[in-house]
Amino acid sequence: MSPSLLVLCLLAGTSWAFVPDDPDFRRIPSIGYPNDEFYLTRNAFAPSSDTAQQVVEKFLVRMTRSLESKDVAVIAGLFQPGFVFKGCRITATKKEYVGRLLEIPSGTKLTFTLKSVLDTGSSIKFTVHVSGFRPASIEANFILNKLDQQLELGKLSTCSRGFLGFSQQENSNDVVERFLEHVKQVMASRSSALIGNLLDEGFVFKMCEPNPKSKVVEQIISFLSSGALIEFPLIESKWIGQGQIEYTAEVNVSMMDRFKAIFVYHPQRNVLMSGRGYWCPSKRFNVFY
């Protein structure tokens, strides 16, 4: 993974900004400050003019471009074969982590603050703080191999609210309730484009038969245009893996029988992946057939 593994993980298709945390944490000359543990020594792999800090900065730029490419091979090239990322709950292999990175939505705006850099000889250890990624910012440590310019290891510095499913997770009910409040605001807009953004491209709602995203959006707009009231109070929820939440809600649409439905929500992308009803209501609209 990358120094920003965590950082870049969040980066797929996103803007990159480097912000020094300490005013004194700037480019340090190749001589002096020998007693400073963050003294930036020369990098054997990079040109003699590059300090360890500069090597890390350039790697982060390369990582950003790689993530923006959405090319699996290019992104995988950022990590050594044995790379692992250690979170609070699980340890991810290179393959698993690259997969998570590919799920990061384009347009995510992140800010990376380089906290520290330590040249250890054959590699560089560094800590990065990443903000702008929902639901919370994170801080992680990475080890960058100088020779092959690939990440050897990544690890969360502290356990904060979910990061790609590797950190301590927030209560699922709280996450879903925030999403449902957002859904109410989107519904009020009566915009088919905004409503469509709530659903994954492959979204299907299964009631009496499968209904694709396009049909679901069409029917919701029809309900709203007719003045129908749509309510969906949360009943229960749980984390189900891959950073997703399965939740049950009571769906209440004017002129329809109330019924329970199960949805799979992806907090990272802020979209519904799928939905299904428990049964076929006696009074139905096309979207629930």
Automatic annotation (TrEMBL):
InterPro entries: NTF2_3. The keyword Signal applies. It comes from the Eukaryota. Residues 1-17 form the signal peptide. Residues 54-161, 173-281 form the NTF2-like domain. Keywords: Signal. This is NTF2-like domain-containing protein. It comes from Caenorhabditis briggsae.
